[in-house]
């Protein structure tokens, strides 16, 4: 029997392949960044061809680093940045345009038009989502209406839509030579086109947005064999691709949050907190999303409440790339430690509007409280604190919707290596913050889904046994973070409203 599971983790800024053993331990990995394309203010794009190229490179390097061959891999899981939208030609395999990234706000006009009937919650009862530029459906509509030739190709059954998971699956299983055109329930639940009860594309909503259902991939569970790799791809022939999860749902599985009431928060480009609500659909009245958490094979789907924050780690990248304040992301912690507090500065990074719990497309980023006293250290500290404050707002909404107060928060993602941020997060929340021994939970969740499908792990309990705490931050009960500082943050958020005229 093959002794490893491979996971492709295709994120907003980079692509990574990781190889895991039965104990959920990484034995080899490789990661490469890809370009962020900003054609005009509010627009964010990726080159899908570059992403596919990077994927092939990281797969080969990860196997080399793990000192294994493809024959040592029992199955492959895929996890991906959600909502990022592309349409390509099934006969040539070429995208009609760059992928439109989840952060992109070009569909604001479409959102306003859709909201004229029924308001922001027009489709929420069916799809669990408010009308927002975040989701894939309006992005598909924009491509159909604005990219030459796509509407005609879609009507002649030549065009294919997919989020990044679908694009990678199609290419890995043969592409133009019979590639599988599928997605899973978690990714489908982020399009604004899938009925959460039936787990099928909703014909009425597709008609309203002018989207032919033939353009859309087949919806499958998160854990089953979808197809096999083919010659010419990075793995070679015959390895089952058996796991597919949107990145935040994958992290929830990787954190083994299999019980109702368990939650995790992932600190990446954005910040995403998910709370397992079991087989029950819970509709939020406090600005959260209702989404599919996972579905394993023929088992019933498990749902979640989600709080989505657009800009967290991306703010640190902005300090690095746009302001040249630091040379690398980890330096932000050292810079922030040069001061004792934020110096009265609050940084609200509403670069793409505000996501949960506000859902304000009209908001834009602000820095408030500036005085001559402020310096680079204060700005760095305010940038880190923004992540913690936004997470507190989401947790408050989650507590209100679920009626269950969390006793601790499992955390993962690149920013959890920042001790200053994690301690401040515990102080703001007033509960312990726990980092697992394997922080790469997004890739691990995709591996678990794939391994479960092929019997590599035979139960959720086997996966749960792999989870271990590596570090816990205990809140400082004397900190002002939960009270005065959070109150000032809330005031700062109001300054972002109504910046963009409707």
List keywords for this structure.
about 500 residues; alpha+beta; seven-stranded mixed beta sheet; six-stranded mixed beta sheet; 16 helices; 23 strands; globular
Question: How is this structure best described in words?
Answer:
This protein has 16 helices and 23 strands. It is of the alpha+beta class and 502 residues long. It has a seven-stranded mixed β-sheet with strand order 17-18-16-15-21-22-23. Strands 3-2-1-5-14-13 form a six-stranded mixed β-sheet, with helices on both faces. It has a two-stranded antiparallel ribbon with strand order 4-7. A hairpin with a 3-residue loop joins strand 1 and strand 2. Helix 9 crosses helix 14, helix 10 packs antiparallel against helix 12 and helix 12 crosses helix 13. The longest helix is centred in the last third of the chain and has 27 residues.
Q: What's the helix and strand layout?
A:
Blueprint (H helix, E strand, L loop, with lengths): L3 E7 L3 E7 L5 E8 L11 E2 L1 H19 L6 E8 L5 E4 L9 E2 L7 H8 L8 H4 L8 H11 L3 H6 L3 E4 L1 H9 L9 E3 H4 L5 E2 L4 E2 L1 H7 L8 E3 L2 E6 L11 E7 H8 L8 E5 L3 E8 L10 E6 L7 E8 L3 H9 L9 H6 L9 E3 L17 E3 L7 H27 L6 E4 L6 H11 L3 E4 L4 H13 L6 H5 L4 E5 L7 H14 L8
Parallel strand pairs: 1-5, 5-14, 9-12, 15-21, 21-22
Antiparallel strand pairs: 1-2, 2-3, 4-7, 6-8, 10-11, 13-14, 15-16, 16-18, 17-18, 19-20, 22-23
Helix pairs in contact: 9-14, 10-12, 12-13, 13-16
């Amino acid at each position: 029997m093959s002794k490893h599971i491979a996971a492709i983790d295709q994120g907003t800024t980079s692509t990574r392949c990781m190889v895991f053993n039965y104990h959920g331990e990484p034995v080899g990995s490789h990661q490469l960044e890809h370009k962020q394309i900003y054609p005009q203010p509010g627009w964010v794009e990726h080159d899908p061809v570059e992403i596919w190229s990077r994927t092939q490179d990281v797969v080969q390097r990860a196997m080399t680093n793990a000192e294994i061959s493809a024959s040592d891999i029992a199955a492959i899981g895929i996890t991906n940045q959600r909502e990022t939208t592309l349409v390509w030609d099934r006969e040539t395999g070429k995208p009609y345009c760059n992928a439109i990234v989840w952060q992109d706000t070009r569909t604001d006009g479409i959102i306003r038009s859709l909201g004229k009937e029924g308001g922001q919650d027009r489709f929420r009862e069916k799809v669990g989502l408010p009308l927002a530029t975040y989701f894939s459906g309006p992005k598909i509509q924009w491509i159909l209406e604005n990219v030459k030739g796509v509407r005609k190709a879609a009507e002649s059954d030549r065009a294919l839509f997919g989020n990044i998971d679908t694009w990678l699956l199609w290419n890995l299983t043969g592409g133009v030579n019979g590639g599988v055109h599928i997605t899973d329930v978690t990714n489908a639940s982020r399009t604004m086109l899938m009925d959460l009860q039936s787990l099928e594309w909703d014909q009425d909503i597709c008609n309203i947005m002018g989207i032919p259902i033939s353009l859309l991939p087949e919806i499958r569970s998160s854990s089953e064999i979808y197809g096999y790799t083919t010659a010419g791809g990075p793995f070679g022939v015959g390895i089952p691709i058996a796991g597919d999860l949107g990145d935040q749902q994958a992290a929830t599985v990787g954190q083994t949050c299999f019980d109702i009431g368990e939650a995790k928060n992932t600190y990446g480009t954005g910040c995403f907190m998910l709370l397992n609500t079991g087989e029950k659909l819970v509709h939020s009245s406090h600005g959260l999303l209702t989404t599919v958490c996972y579905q394993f094979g023929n088992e019933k789907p498990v749902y979640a409440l989600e709080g989505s924050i657009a800009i967290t780690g991306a703010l640190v990248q902005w300090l690095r790339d746009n302001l040249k304040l630091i040379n690398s992301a980890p330096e932000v912690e050292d810079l922030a430690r040069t001061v004792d507090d934020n110096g009265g500065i609050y940084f609200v990074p509403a670069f793409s509007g505000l996501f949960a719990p506000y859902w304000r497309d009209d908001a834009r980023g602000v820095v408030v409280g500036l005085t001559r006293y402020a310096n680079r250290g204060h700005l760095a500290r305010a940038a880190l604190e923004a992540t913690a404050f936004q997470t507190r707002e989401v947790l408050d909404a989650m507590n209100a919707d679920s009626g269950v107060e969390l006793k601790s928060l499992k955390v993962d993602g690149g920013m959890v290596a920042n001790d200053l941020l994690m301690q401040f997060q515990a102080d703001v929340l007033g509960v312990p913050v726990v980092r697992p021994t394997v922080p790469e939970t997004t890739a691990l969740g995709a591996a678990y889904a794939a391994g479960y499908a092929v019997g590599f792990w035979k139960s959720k309990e086997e996966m749960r046994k792999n989870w271990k705490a590596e570090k816990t931050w205990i809140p400082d009960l004397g900190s002002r973070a939960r009270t005065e500082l959070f109150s000032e943050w809330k005031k700062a958020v109001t300054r972002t409203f109504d910046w963009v005229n409707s």
